[in-house]
Amino acid sequence: MVDISSSMHNGLLGQPRHHRRSSAECRIEATALLQEKEDLTADQIVAFADLTSKADTYMALIHDDVRKLWVQRQLVELGFPVVGSGSEA
After folding, report:
1. Overall domain count for the chain
2. How far apart, in whole angstroms, are the C-alpha atoms of residue 20 and residue 40?
3. Domain extent for 61
4. Cβ pair 37, 45 in contact under 8 A
5. Distance (Å) of CA 56 to CA 9, 29, 61, 67
6. Does residue 8 fall inside a structural domain?
7. Residue 79 has pLDDT above 60, yes or no
């Protein structure tokens, strides 16, 4: 019985199951990381906070240059002026 319980708890082949984050958890983490990693004004951060559907995309962009370019493009779509001249495609 203990073995069966352990198998069910740990998943197939004894590998632990990973908790899938909820959309709310993802949005919270994305908003925190956005404030920590990006050089944005308060107005820009607030504008991004309203884009809750974009949190999954932001979290998936792991390369700094790609993430920063994506952030800049989102800001332009929100009506903010282009800042700097990173690697724009």
Report:
1. 1
2. 29
3. 21-77
4. no
5. 27, 10, 9, 12
6. no
7. yes
